[in-house]
Amino acid sequence: MFCWPEILGQWNKYVRPSLWLPFLEIVWGVLTGLVAMTSNASQIYALRTFIGLAESSAWPGMMTLFMHWYTPTELAKRMGFYHSCQAIGGMMANALQTAMHEGMDGVRGMAGWRWMFIINAIVTVTFAFVGFVFLPDYPNKPNPLAFWFTKADAQLAMARLRRNNRAEPSPVNWASARRTFTNWVVYWGYAYFSLFLKSLKNPDGTNRWSVSDINAIPIGGQAIQVAFVWIWALLSDYLRTRWVLIIVQVVIGLVPCIIMSVWNVPLGAKYFSYFISYLSLGTAPLIFAWISDLIPQDPEQRALVVGVAIAMYYAVSAWSQVLIWPAVEAPHYRVGWQTSIALWALVIIMTVLLKYIDDNWMRPQRLAFREKKEQEVAATTGEPTLTSQGKQVDEDVASVKDLK
C-alpha cells in the first residue's frame, strides 16, 4: 500500500517536486501530531497507514533529484549526507524521548510519548514549508519560487550535466516505463537493537536498563552509522568506485551475523556485534549513486528504477521482517541472523553479477551515448570530439609501431 505514492512521485510530470514533496511532508507531519491524540491501538494503526503513504515519496524523490544535479565525483557524498540524516534524526528522537520521558511526562495531563509526537509534528511541518522555496526542482526547469536560484546557476548546472555526459531531466512516460520494467532492480534492508536491550535482566530478574537507558544507548550506534555513511560516501567519490565498497560493507556485516548466530558468546561480544553492524549501513547511497552512474543517458529510467527498487523493498519487508525478526523471539531470533548471512551472500553475488553486466552490456551503451553527445557539441563548435581524438591517437601509435 505504501508503494504507489512513491512510484507516482517518480512518474509525476505535472506537479513539481518542490510542491509534491513538501505537500506530502506537511500531510505526514499533521498526521504524526494526531497520533498524540489517539486513545486506542486501532487509531494508531490507521494513522500509521496514512503516514506511510505520505512519507513514501520522500527518500526516492530526493535521491532522484540528486541524480539530476550532481556529477559522479559528487553524488555519493550528497546521497550519503542525506541518508545519514535518518540516523541523526534517530539520535535526536532517542534523546528527545529520554528528555520527554523524564521531563514532560504528565505535563498538561499528557504522557511524555504524546509530547514527542507533537514536537515531531511541529518540526516536520515547519521544515516542509521551507521546502516550497528551497527545493530547486530541475536544472532545466527550476523552481519559480526559488528566488535564490539565478538563471546563471541554471546555465552552470546544465553545462555540468553536459560535461559529464548526463542527459537532461525529462518527464517519465510509458516508453521509459517499459524500458525500466524490462531491466534490473536492486535494494535490501536490515534490523533492530532496542528489543535486545529491553530483554536484558539483572540477576534478581529486574530490567538491566531503564526506559531512558534503552532510548539513549542506541545513540552510540547511530553516531557510528552517521560517521561511516560519510566515510563510505567520501571514499566512493574519491576512488570513483561503488561496487568494491559495497562488498567491503557486506564483509563487515557478516561478522556480527556470524557472532549472533552462535549466540552463546559473552555479553560484550553481543554488544560488539550490534555496534559494528552500524558500519555496514552505508550501502544505500552507494547503490543509488551506482544506479546513476550506470544509466546517465536515461533520466526517466533512473527515476523509475529508484521508485520501483524502494517500492519492492517495502513490499518484501512488510512481511519478511515479521517472519524473520518476530518480536516474540527477541533477543535470540531463531532464524534471523542465519537468514542475514544468506542475504549478505546474495548481495555479494548480485553485486558481482551487476558489475559483470555493466562491463559487458551497459558500458558500451554509455560510451555510445557519450560519443553522440560529443558529436552534437562538435557540430555546434566545429571542434573534434574527445572520442575521435582518442581514436586518432590510437591510429598514430599503431602507425609508429608498424614503422618500427
TrEMBL record:
Which domain of life does the protein's organism represent? Eukaryota
Q: List GO molecular-function terms, semicolon-separated.
A: transmembrane transporter activity
Q: Which residues cross the membrane?
A: 20-38, 50-70, 113-135, 181-197, 217-236, 243-265, 271-291, 303-325, 337-357
Query: Which residue ranges does the record annotate as region Disordered?
Result: 374-404
Keyword entries, A-Z: Membrane, Transmembrane, Transmembrane helix, Transport
One Pfam annotation, family name?
Answer: MFS_1
Topology within the bilayer: Multi-pass membrane protein
> Where does it localize?
Membrane
* Major localisation: membrane
Composition bias of kind Basic and acidic residues appears in 392-404
| Domain Major facilitator superfamily (MFS) profile, residue spans | 1-363
Recorded GO CC terms: membrane
- Polar residues bias spans: 382-391
Q: Could you identify this protein by its name?
A: MFS general substrate transporter
Question: Which species does the entry assign this protein to?
Answer: Dendrothele bispora (strain CBS 962.96)
